[in-house]
Design brief:
The structure is a homotetramer of 485-residue chains.
Chain A lengths: L5 H9 L5 E3 L2 E2 L10 H13 L6 H4 E3 L6 E3 L8 H18 L8 H20 L3 H15 L3 E4 L22 E6 L2 E12 L6 E4 L14 E6 L5 E5 L5 H5 L13 E12 L3 E4 L5 H37 L8 H23 L2 E2 L5 E2 L2 H11 L2 H13 L1 H4 L6 H4 L5 H8 L5 H16 L13 H11 L2 H12 L12
Parallel strand pairs in A: 1-10, 5-8
Antiparallel strand pairs in A: 1-2, 3-4, 6-7, 7-11, 8-9, 9-12, 10-11, 13-14
């Protein structure tokens, strides 16, 4: 059973132990609770799309383990084209719900990265991580699972290493090594996709040295594993998604969570790194190259929806798209730069000997810097075109529209080239995308742009360029980096 | 009694008829209701500052009517320096509450513009509007009133004139002229400061021709006048301001409202324009020149708070301000451009023969284009420096922190170089300023940047520049604007 | 003989009829004249690199005609990887000389595009253009020729079609059809690489309709064909390249020319289109997709040299690269966006049935918009880091340094952390790259960004995005593009 | 005789000793030599404008010494309005010639700054510098002199102080103190306006401490003083201004020079600082506040000409201004921001007790950062609108147009909606303004933007903003700048 429908996927979630909270309230049925149903629905849609006549090729791929068709997020990308389809799927998903799904993304990428890194570790250390991972990979494919990826630790004081923190729980770590597994504890924060995931891939939040080896662990745990509590975070205007009415769009939502690992036991077959600090940086490096090459597709897909939202607002206001064509074209350009630079990273990449295709790191990190920049410009244009009622959602609430006293007046006041409700809904979408619950956190999500710039710095051949310039300038005298004085 | 304390001002609000709603609920006491108390508190602060030993000079000025010291928003700016103090006050106010106050701004400016335009109308038409306005101005000063300004109409289909709209109420208009006054009806929308205002100055939303003379009216009405209903709009994450806890800062808030004028009678002594369409454009022109020269101070003041928020977040994360100094300096530059260009408009302006000082329109509208641009850059930097928890406020709710089950874990997870609560509060402020209820709507608030660009186009001497360039290039042949082909 | 050395290539040029002019002076030996030697030298370098142990793989490829190794600019790119190597070669070339070579670029691309379009034409019209082109392609490969591409016409009044121009010569056109060939005349302007070319590929400057069929021609002519006169244009500070001394770098130069076709006869075997207007747009379309996907590599390569120039200047001034690291990283990011988006276009492209691989047009044109933008930012940073003497080359002339009276003083005045000559040379390079003869014309070269934006507009799925947004917003009412009123 | 005509001014220059060189050639008559005549002509124009019926008020002001009307550049600005007229004059001058004049700018500002600083020094040290300066000021006014200002030293290694340089001449310094005066030597570089100046005001290039007191000198010397040699620098395409024909516009030019002070004696009455290091920073501080508040007017004026150049090119190409209106409006906005922020600095400034009006330093330095930025954007737009022939001046030389062989063809090839010569001239102007001899060096001229940013950093109230943010966020815990770890 390599493919599940959306309904089968939901069923799998309903069987799990409730351990997700918001508002200090336990969410009993994650598939129907107002807080989480939107997120689950959007992941379910990707399951259903795997059977779509026209687009199934985007949502599925051939398994490298079984040769069968599986959900794309259960397979190993082996070529530049495979990675391009990862990007295509992300853009398609965003165009469906307008925002992030989470549970077909970072966990999957984490698992494929471990495919490569476990092979390297086994080679050096004679461990059997790769075999474990292969079995786990097979399990995931066979059960058509949705995976979340838990990378970001709570971190504590940024000027200190994990081992120097006042509270060791600031980073998830190995508390105890037992014969049959390990016990882990600590906090992973701002984790996307938990609500829609069957499983969580946990990897280190950074590349570490020997002193930090307790923090170098990679495991897979069921989302409902004993000892794990998940607390969903707030996001802008989150209550609207839980309210009745149209004050937020409801096709799909994004949720993020804080994970409290309170002495969670992980059996050996689910442990893929346990102290091999030398390879923690590899995990981060491969992960970032894949993830940041594809992430431009996410913001491009959301940008596509912003284009549509802006066109609708213009028309709802009685104005032609032509009035704003230059701005709309700029939005499209922004989207395509984010999308295209990622694709460029893929073309310039190469295949790891394990079979995993890894995009070019320099271009992938360059793309991240633009993912942290261009969508903001696109949002500003969305607000520019959409006008004042969209900019901050400056419209009375859905409840006020229901008022017997003045509701009719509000419908009339909002009416323009379309009816008052349609125009309000159009404005609410623009608001939601730019300052509402739809914003996915493109600046720091998946790592901060300053970190990406450091990688760009590390990978750029400064001295080669300086030498070229010297030669072209005809300089024969000495020009050197000054010593510290 | 030209000066009131904050408490006296609140008392004046409490005496008014309740006619303000949100959530289909009538707000009985506007000074204490969770929806409105923040807004009132921030206006009250400006009243109190009029007695401040150090800063009273910013919040007060000498009356041109009585020679006495009055609240600045009850006086006529007569010099570039006076207008600069308008800007200074705005920046100071934003630095106090982090956002807009509304009730010491557009209404005041509207009244001073009418001071000039009524004089011009009287000259041409022999009307006595200026005398009426003078009496009203005196009344405002004597009673130390807070004024909102209602300019923006609901507008309907933007490709049609007011008179062509399906629903005439799309714009506030004169429904009936009686001997003792006029009856007006229609919708003014997205009106700032209503909650904190004693009075509302209503002026036309555009400059109109003869066919639209019904829409050319200028009046002053008490906020609680019979026939007027005010509905407060939503804004991002608005419920947090009404909730208990720290998920939104609460020093001051901004509110905006839809005004439903349902046959409101205005007695003649409060009517300052009634059909003199030729002067409707003058009102808009003078208003925009004053307003858009000063508005840069608003966003500069909010930008100052963003600088502070970003510094606090950096430090809360354990990092020095120095790490981000280039970015912080860029934030300061953005603020000062918005502030400084407005001051430049003031220096380049001149005094109207009525005594009102009017900044240079070209520079004021140039400033508006930057007010719609630079604060967005400043917000992006705020998020860049502040990190992921601030970008989208990706932290569990206040309620979750109170959880007996896992609240302690959350405090620990958020702890870094400061305690968990302080870091959460610091992040919430950054969120509130950039994607939360603190965003004042700098793009379209006070008019859209595209409109400002049209004014820039109209006021720029294109042909003079083309002639200069021809002369410098030594061109003697003919180069002309092509005719339509 | 599929590969030539640089010297052999020069020899081939020396055998040609002199028909190139500058300063109203005929250039007798194009390989040694101060006006042209730099350009020829830089093309010769690419010939020599075809034998380079390390980098020959960049400068050569396997011929699709003979299976032999040929100069890359004599072969047909058949995969995304082939096109990526086109980009790599361009970046490599720029890093060698600091500027454009011209004669291994547009002519080559033109020939490969004709490979595809002639096949299409033959299919529809039963012509034998493809066979002719194949023979010509073979001739080029066998003789290892350098090709220039002539696309841009003089154009005349931009608001008129070619056939409507006062002077038909504004566009190159078919003057006469003879049995054995055609006679063409008119002006091609701003043509790059003529000086280094053996042959010129002439294609239409636009996609035309039936009324313009005289302008729809594609031919190959030797650069020294009878009836053709080439006039080299000025460029900023061009005289320095012709002067003695160091006031311009001299590794390689770019030249552009105006081509005067004064009744040039082209025999049938060199005619690949003659009136088939329907396919003129195809030529432009395929050409632009290939050219604009690769052009980012050109500006990236020049940007690499700017990075080097800036680092050298910083160090020459006594400052560490670290002082400017953020700015240098931004330069690298700009370069990689231009390079990477082009690669993305390649990955998203597909193979034409003729075998030619054509990148994705949308991404290629998006890249062009950034090629017209990011290098300017990179130049500004180069000037920012390099300081005042580089910004405008504000240093006395080479001649002044030779002055017996004050030459020694100048050396001393320029001395800093390196000797005066080295620092001057470093500054001259920065000047040359940013406001000197090294600037290649990235804005309009290869077509203007406004044209690229029109293609982006044409290829973006506006209505799909509007429909997505409507669905997500939950809009059921009608929102449509307004009709003209 | 407080006012001179342009001819009288030229006469005064002709009387001076020739000591200016270019191309290792002594310029005998600075008013007619092809290298310098353009610069002199543009300064002469400002003299003539002092008698202009319409605009004399811009070019003249009332003397604070005599109460008579004098050239503005011979008077002391005492109010914000006076400084605004400084800005107006600069913008007017740029609109006349398209570029910088130099000799009515920095020297004048230097003299007015010394007016203030000498008063302060006298107060502390009991010196009589102010009296000397007053006499010198009177002399300047009486003789209607043009002044250059020499500030920038050759500097040498930027990581070392002046006294640490290998060559002490890297900075102009006091070599010897005699009873009747001082002997100075060293290099001032990139000095603007020397060619058009009667006198040179020499001030320190930085604010120094006691160890550098030899470098703390302020003097006035005639341009032709014994021991001084001036070498004019190259600038982009400089030879064109010295050639016959239209390849460069010739209304006015800018020149810069290296000044070699080879033991120049300055009598005491022309010495205004000699070792009072404590006040060297004051000179720089006041100078920068005045200069950088006004410099925006320079780039605005040049930007005005760019607007005209772009409009002319569009029309010459057959296109309407309307096609490019958004871009043109953006150019205007850029100009006005540079102009307006400077005016804002003036309004926010205050009068020094000596009478000199000094703009606000923070806003002035903010403006400098934009002077180093916005004109580049304006240039890019100029090139964008103007098309390929303007971008790099890709047109054959004037000489080629005179060719009997093909000159006529070139005229025809360039013809569009205007004749070939006019279109060529229009393109040459756009080239000259953006990458030619007309570029004034707005990045580093008058000091580098990084220096301005350091001032912005120093003058911004970071801790105040952090405290505001803490208060608004409701933070009571401790958040502090981390200590070095």
């Amino acid at each position: 059973m390599a493919l599940k429908t959306g309904e089968q996927y939901k069923e799998s979630l309903r069987k799990m132990r409730p351990n997700v909270y918001k508002w200090d309230r336990l969410i009993e049925d994650i598939t129907t609770d107002p807080v989480t149903r939107g997120h689950v629905a959007s992941v379910a849609h990707s399951y259903d799309m795997s059977f779509d006549e026209k687009d199934a090729y985007i949502y599925t791929a051939k398994s490298h383990l079984t040769g069968e068709i599986a959900h794309r997020w259960n397979t190993l990308p082996q070529t530049a084209e495979d990675q391009m389809h990862n990007a295509r799927m992300k853009r398609h998903q965003y165009r469906h719900s307008g925002t992030c799904k989470g549970a077909t993304c970072a966990g999957w990428t984490g698992m494929t990265v471990l495919w490569a890194v476990t092979q390297e570790m086994d080679k050096e250390y004679g461990t059997n991580y790769h075999e474990r991972l292969k079995n786990y990979f097979k399990y995931v494919e066979d059960n058509a699972l949705a995976l979340a990826g838990a990378i970001t630790d709570a971190k504590g004081d940024r000027s200190l290493k994990p081992s120097q923190q006042k509270n060791k729980d600031s980073h998830v770590h190995i508390k105890e090594v037992r014969e049959d597994g390990i016990v882990i504890r600590g906090y992973k924060t701002q984790i996307c996709g938990i609500v829609g995931a069957n499983e969580i891939i946990v990897v280190p939040g950074g590349g570490y040295g020997e002193s930090e080896k307790d923090f170098c662990l990679a495991v897979a745990v069921p989302r409902d594993v004993e000892g794990l509590t998940c607390v969903i975070t707030r996001k802008p205007s989150d209550t609207r998604e839980e309210e009745e009415g149209w004050d937020a769009p409801k096709v799909g939502t994004i949720t993020q969570a804080y994970l409290i690992f309170d002495d969670v036991f992980v059996p050996n077959e689910r442990v893929f790194m346990a102290g091999e600090y030398k390879y923690s940086g590899k995990i981060i490096g491969y992960f970032a190259a894949i993830y940041r090459a594809a992430i431009g597709a996410c913001v491009a897909g959301q940008g596509d929806v912003m284009i549509g939202a802006a066109i609708n607002m213009a028309r709802a206001n009685g104005l032609s798209q032509k009035v704003f064509q230059d701005k709309l074209t700029q939005m499209a350009i922004n989207n395509e730069i984010n999308y295209g630079t990622g694709l460029g990273a893929m073309l310039a990449g190469k295949q790891h000997e394990s079979g995993l295709y890894i995009p070019d790191a320099l271009l992938a990190h360059v793309n991240k810097t633009q993912v942290a920049k261009l969508p903001y410009e696109t949002k500003v244009i969305t607000q520019d075109i959409s006008g004042g009622i969209a900019e901050t959602g400056c419209i009375p609430s859905y409840k006020d529209f229901q008022s017997e006293l003045y509701g009719e007046h509000l419908y009339k006041a909002l009416e323009a080239a379309t009816d008052g409700e349609s125009r309000t809904r159009a404005a609410r979408l623009a608001e939601w995308l730019t300052v509402g619950a739809g914003i996915p956190g493109c600046m720091h999500g998946g790592g901060s742009p300053d970190g990406a710039k450091m990688v760009v710095k590390a990978l750029t051949k400064w001295e080669d360029y300086a030498a070229d310039a010297k030669r072209i300038a005809g300089i024969t005298g000495e020009i050197v980096e000054p010593k510290k004085k």
